[in-house]
Write a structure and sequence with these properties.
By secondary structure, this protein is mainly α. It has one domain. 81% of the residues lie in helices and 0% in strands. α5 packs across α6, α6 packs across α11 and α8 packs antiparallel against α10. The longest helix has 33 residues. The protein is globular. It is found in: Cell membrane. InterPro entries: L-PG_synthase/AglD. It is a multi-pass membrane protein.
Length: 319
């Protein structure tokens, strides 16, 4: 699986290089220069995104351990997300790193793992809500055929069904169900069977959260949804700085649909090339041209690189 994902990264990188080369390097650089000294403005939205996501993660603990702060989770999350981007493990490579750093803070492995799984489920649900908002706006902004709209809606519903199922299974014994399926298929490793007691504790922790902390669940969901809206604000700021301002509603719709396209390629680390290509196609659909889409995509990748570096520094410092 790891070799296959590395191959996908290589193919995606080549495809991204081809897309940007087709648009024209010089033209893209010319648009990037237009941002000038306003680059810090592009970094601010993700600062808010990570803060809101850290707050949501904090509420995912149900009863947060003593001494655990949102500030610590902020840098922990940056470190873990940096590993997510760099490793060929889709969006899962950094989760063990987050749990390991929490253990150094005195949080039990069961508690930290449960919070991460719960947070992932809530984030996925909020993403689907954001995508559905974008799809509701799309007919008023894009000239898409009904077949395209229905196809995008079907893809969103598939993602939504998966996210909802993931959350519901957490409430009713996700890990034990997985063990039962592996055992029935005679594919259950002995070492995993030995950890059955710890796995049962993990299931109990997640089930307790959903049964006793419903209010925190909806609070975490709202915070994650707000962080997705700020992604749309980021697109609005980028196009404004590129000298082609678009409406905030248009920016939200564009980003939500790009998120949908990227979500379908979750197995490619960083959604490399897929989300970039989606942004370019969507800007063409908005009659903004491929050049603006490519410039927007490159700017978002540069922003991603900046916060990736901050995450690696945070990881080195915590170690």
């Amino acid at each position: 699986m790891t070799k296959a994902k590395i191959l996908l990264v290589v193919i995606a990188s080549l495809f991204l290089f081809w897309m940007l080369r087709s648009v024209g390097w010089e033209a893209i650089l010319q648009h990037l220069r237009m941002v000038g000294w306003y680059w810090p403005l592009i970094l601010l939205p993700y600062l808010l995104v990570n803060l809101l996501d850290s707050m949501s993660w904090y509420f995912s603990f149900g009863s947060p351990p003593t001494g655990l702060t949102i500030r610590y989770l902020f840098f922990n999350r940056l470190a873990g997300e940096a590993i997510n981007i760099l490793t060929p493990m889709a969006s899962l490579g950094g989760e063990p790193v987050k749990a390991m750093l929490l253990q150094k803070k005195g949080v039990s492995l069961t508690n930290s793992t449960a919070s991460l799984v719960i947070s992932k489920g809530i984030m996925a649900l909020s993403m689907v809500l954001y995508i559905l908002l974008g799809l509701a706006l799309a007919p008023f902004l894009f000239h898409l055929s009904s077949a395209w709209l229905w196809g995008l809606l079907a893809a969103a519903l598939v993602l939504g069904g998966g996210a909802l199922g993931f959350v519901l299974l957490q409430r009713y014994g996700l890990c034990q169900l997985g063990l039962a399926v592996l055992e029935r298929c005679r594919f259950l490793p002995g070492r995993l069977k030995e950890k059955e007691e710890a796995i049962c504790r993990l299931d109990a922790q997640m089930s307790t959260f959903y049964r006793q902390h419903g209010r925190k669940f909806f609070l975490a969901l709202g915070l994650y949804f707000l962080s997705w809206l700020i992604h749309g604000l980021e697109v609005y700021i980028i196009f404004y700085l590129l000298g082609h301002p678009i409406g905030l509603v248009t920016a939200l719709c564009l980003d939500a649909l790009a998120t949908l396209i990227g979500g379908l390629a979750f197995f490619i680390p960083g959604n490399l090339a897929v989300q970039d290509g989606g942004i370019i196609l969507l800007t063409i659909g908005l009659h903004l041209g491929s050049l603006l889409g490519a410039a927007c995509s490159v700017i978002r990748r540069l922003r991603e690189g900046f916060w990736l570096a901050v995450g690696l520094v945070a990881l080195a410092y915590d170690r």
